[in-house]
Specification:
heterodimer, A: 147 residues, alpha/beta, six-stranded mixed β-sheet, B: 401 residues, mainly beta, 17 strands, globular
């Protein structure tokens, strides 16, 4: 094979890898949507702000709305959210929350068992913010765009 | 006493299992959490950490537990407290203590205050060193976090200011803590225990003083990389009595200079975690009510790695390096140099979110420098003299809710 053929193969592989990475990224961010109680004024939230809320660095958004996170106890939606938005594994997240609780620097956030329970909890709890699978009915709550 | 504590511990776990997590009172959401751990230690040579670890089949005198309650009073204001109790060989002796109790007020993400008895931020793990279930290892590197000397850095009664500053241009987050307060050591810690024995024969009634310092850590733009530095300064007085010169007479020792510098880095990527820290502790003090002046220069570092092989299994290893120098003084005419080098391997099994088991091997060279400054090995539990190398097996189970 000549040098030109090598370059063509390299470009093709790079393009394929890029497409795969894009597809995986799109699939990840597309599996979860962020929902909030109607008391939350914002319609969108930045990824940094979302991370700050779930890691208990802050309990209010830039517009002043008070927020409190609710998590799922496990499952694919939870795994995807924790990995993509909090950049941790579930085990690391549990250790993180326990380190806050046992040094007095934070509380264990509310956690529930399913998407439906998240929607129910968020709908009835002022300031609640959670995540569910994209296809979940979000009646009674608002969906926040993550920028 | 032991039976009463066991019954209390049992009740504590039962109550915890029933009432764990949340309850509402005065329209506020209270949370109750607790933890307990039980260890077993066997060594082939030398008794370790004041336990009779090399006698018979080892020692199970390694127990601790704690429980806390906390409540957010408003969106920005929260309060809580934690009790802690332990028995580690001759240390702790089941005397419960207030681990932390404070109120905090967060004005902004970048500025908050807390006051009361507060865990001291020093390096990666000083404030969480008792919380076995948070760590891969049954014992954290003893060059940095000596469990027998936990009192010297664990908490202060005073206040902190702290916050997170998000840097522009996605340059990461800077977290700072500055604090000042009073440190008060337990009479059942390693240092009072060491000095109570020959040749010190000092019985402390109080040991503590002013403690102030700060910590700055940077969560860098490189995902998973954290670097930081801490500085701790202290002004310590110890009061008690001594019989070192015959009759019992009042005893006083005080620090002329006492500081700790610590530098650290942590990298977390997926299932891998790597930590490394360096600490220098310098103490210049007057002892025996001003009769002699002694300087102690302690330097330690470690390099640790842990990998989560499966959801339930984590493997880890570290190398811990401890060195101590004591320049010549009245009771020691030549320079004293001592060390402990510890190679460690660990397996941690998470049975579920609340229970874990650990199996850990230590391969140690050296034994610190008794009788001047403790580092795990004490002459009083090694009357036959200390041997140059020690291997240890630790089995530990932990529970938290």
């Amino acid at each position: 094979m000549g040098r030109g053929t090598y370059m063509k193969c390299f470009k093709a592989l790079s393009l394929a890898a890029g497409l795969v990475a894009f597809a995986v990224g799109a699939a990840q961010s597309g599996t979860v949507k962020v929902i909030a109680n109607s008391s939350v004024r914002a319609d969108s939230i930045s990824a940094d702000e979302l991370k700050g809320v779930f890691l208990e660095h802050t309990n209010s958004l830039k517009d002043g709305s008070h927020v409190e996170p609710v998590l799922e106890k496990g499952g694919p939606t939870h795994e995807a959210f924790v990995r993509d938005y909090l950049e941790k594994s579930d085990a690391a997240l549990q250790i993180y929350y326990r380190s806050l609780v046992f040094t007095g620097r934070g509380s264990m956030p509310k956690s529930v068992g399913s998407d439906a329970e998240v929607v129910t909890y968020v709908a009835k709890t002022k300031g609640a913010i959670g995540y569910v699978a994209t296809g979940t009915s979000a009646a009674g709550v608002k969906t926040l765009e993550v920028k | 006493m032991f039976r009463r504590v066991l019954i209390l511990a049992f009740l504590f776990i039962c109550v915890g299992a029933v009432f764990a997590q949340d309850f509402k009172l005065f329209d506020r959401d209270f949370q109750v959490h607790g933890f307990a751990s039980q260890g077993f230690v066997y060594t082939n040579e030398n008794n370790w950490l004041t336990m009779n670890t090399s006698v018979g089949s080892g020692s199970a005198q390694m127990t601790d537990f704690g429980a806390n309650i906390s409540v957010p009073i408003t969106d920005k204001f929260r309060a809580g407290a934690q009790l802690y109790d332990r028995n580690l060989g001759q240390l702790g002796k089941w005397h419960p203590e207030l681990d932390w109790a404070y109120a905090s007020y967060q004005l902004k993400p970048w500025f908050a205050i807390r006051g009361g008895k507060v865990k001291t931020v020093l390096g990666l793990y000083t404030d969480t060193q008792d919380l076995d279930f948070l760590h891969t290892f049954a014992l954290l590197p003893q060059s940095m976090y000596p469990t027998d000397l936990r009192d010297s850095t664990i908490a202060h009664t005073g206040g902190d200011v702290y916050g997170d500053i998000r840097l522009k241009n996605r340059m990461g987050v800077l977290s700072y803590t500055a604090y000042a307060g009073h440190r008060e050591d337990s009479k059942y810690g390693g240092y009072p225990y060491l000095l109570k024995q020959v040749p010190g024969l000092i019985d402390f009634t109080s040991y503590g003083g002013l403690q102030y310092g700060g910590d700055l850590r940077w969560a860098t733009p490189l995902k998973g990389l954290l670097v930081g530095a801490s500085r701790l300064m202290e002004d310590i007085d110890g009061y008690g009595t001594t019989t070192a010169f015959g009759p019992k007479v009042p005893y006083h020792e005080w620090s002329k200079s006492d500081w700790t510098n610590q530098y650290y880095a942590q990298y977390v990527h997926d299932r891998l975690q790597i930590d490394s820290e360096y600490r220098r502790y310098w103490r210049d003090q007057e002892i025996y009510s001003g009769l002699a002046r002694v300087q102690t220069d302690v330097r330690g570092w470690y390099f640790a790695g842990a990998y989560r092989v499966t959801k339930r299994l984590q493997l880890g290893s570290y190398y811990s390096h401890y060195e101590l120098n004591v320049p010549p003084f009245l009771f020691q005419p030549t320079l004293l140099k001592a060390h402990t080098y510890d190679k460690v391997v660990t397996g941690r099994i998470d049975l579920n979110r609340f229970m874990n088991l650990k199996v850990e091997g230590h391969f140690m060279a050296g034994y610190g420098s008794p009788p001047y400054y403790p580092e795990g090995f004490y002459p009083s539990v090694n009357p036959q003299g200390l041997k140059p190398a020690t291997n240890a097996l630790i089995l530990k189970c932990g529970f938290n809710f």
